[in-house]
From TrEMBL:
This is SixA phosphatase family protein. Gene3D superfamilies: Phosphoglycerate mutase-like. Pfam families: His_Phos_1. It comes from the Bacteria. InterPro entries: His_Pase_superF_clade-1, His_PPase_superfam. It comes from Mucilaginibacter lutimaris.
Amino acid sequence: MKKLLLIRHAKATHESGFADFERPLTDKGFQQAELMAARLQANSIQPQILVASPALRTLATANVFSQVLGLPNAITNKTIYDASESALLKVIEGLPQDKDFIALVGHNPGISQVLYYLSGAIKEVPPCSVALIEFELDTWAEIYEATGKLTFYDTPKD
């Protein structure tokens, strides 16, 4: 069985002066990430590794999850940044086969699209939402449309 935890980055600044790739999290974003990581921990949802976009806001979100969950720093994959649904599916297909539970930290609209494509679940995916999809499959390469089941979904409440 493979499990994929989709995490959308936490709230980032929209202030001018930052290139999109360099946008930092806001104070609220850091609070969201801590809250959601703690909720995962409370529900015994513990991925083995995190794979994240190298954009500042995504990496900062992943770092908070790593710290709270006691995981190693996220592995970065530049394809996740600004990725379409098909690009994210290629990333998922190439995830390390020796890991059965991986968290992918990325951006919308890709995260929402992949959530729907893999599970059929239509969900709002505001900043720092988490969605756990479970697959009755043995390899990441076997994952395709509607093969997963959404087993946990949560968003930070404003």
